[in-house]
Design brief:
The chain is of the alpha+beta class. It has helices at about 60, 65-70, 80-85, and strands spanning about 15-20, 30-35, 40-50, 50-60. It has a two-stranded antiparallel ribbon. Strands 3-4 form a two-stranded antiparallel sheet. β3 (about 40-50) and β4 form a beta hairpin. The longest helix has 8 residues, at about 65-70. The chain is elongated and about 65 Å long. The two termini are about 25 Å apart.
């Protein structure tokens, strides 16, 4: 499974994990190691007219006012988001 937000498209980023930069000689230079910054994804079930849809959403999107309208049912969920998610079948 990919670690990508299905609403905003935010995914993992690469960078350096950097320790405290020591001052002084070249030997005491701050070490940098490669690091992957992964978004904080949460699984949310959103009601739609066709049924419930599970989405992987970042916490920053969860707290946004626009997404809260989708959760409460004030606004319908856009079709492109529904297509990205797998609708849950009713058993």
């Amino acid at each position: 499974m990919s670690r990508v937000c299905q609403v905003s498209g935010v995914g993992p980023m690469k960078g350096h994990r950097k320790r405290h930069p020591h001052s002084g000689a070249w030997k005491l230079r701050a070490p940098k190691k490669n690091h992957t910054f992964v978004p904080n994804l949460q699984t949310v079930t959103v009601p739609t007219p066709e049924g419930k849809v599970r989405l992987k959403v970042t916490t920053s999107v969860l707290t946004s006012r626009e997404f809260q309208d989708y959760l409460s049912g004030v606004k319908p969920l856009p079709e492109e988001i529904i297509k990205k998610a797998r609708p849950r079948s009713k058993k």
